Amino acid sequence: MVTIRPATKTDLPELLRIYTPYVEASTASFDEAAPTLSTFTTQYEQIQHDYPYLIAESAGELLGYCYAHAYSNRNAYQWSSEVTIYLKPAAQGQHVGTQLYQALEQQLINQNIYNVFACITGSNEASLIFHAHCGYAEVGHFKASGFKHGQWLDTIWMQKELQPLSDNQPQPFMARTN
Questions:
Q1: ∠ at Cα 162 (160, 168), nearest 5°?
Q2: Into how many domains does the chain fold?
Q3: Rounded mean pLDDT for each run of 10 residues along the chain, 178 residues in total
Q4: For residue 90, is it within any domain?
Q5: Residue 74's domain is classified under what CATH number?
Q6: Has residue 170 been placed in a domain?
Q7: With 0-12 CB in 10 A as exposed, 13-18 as middle and 19+ as buried, what is 82?
Q8: What pTM value is reported for the model?
Q9: Is there a domain that residue 89 lies in?
């Protein structure tokens, strides 16, 4: 059974171990070197101050994590956020990512987020399929926007509307409270 819960600082060394292969051995992340635990912790602290940062675990084993962060720092964008997810290879294809995103998206709805965006490396077919399965649609394709591991890489932006839009002024974004 998979449990979804908020990440804690004690989870960060394992989350960094999950993330590092995406940096070092793939083009799924545009980071060129794995962050230090200190840098990873600082990023976590900044994100979780306002946005959900969730992990999936089963029998005490961390399987993956996801989080949201501001799409832009301009006030007019407060109703949109960018989402990120990383899973251990053994957890892929097991619906762990779907469970993580469902929990994340519900929390974002509760924070008055209407749109979520995912920026995905064009060659990351598994992530593109996963996001499409979760209801995201391609809204932008940037050619040769990054260079890593000796190759130019495209980025694809995908978007999902979490709740219906209206012409009325939406309630302001509510930062995370716990």
A1: 115
A2: 1
A3: 97 98 95 96 96 97 97 94 97 95 97 97 96 98 96 97 91 79
A4: yes
A5: 3.40.630.30
A6: no
A7: middle
A8: 0.94
A9: yes
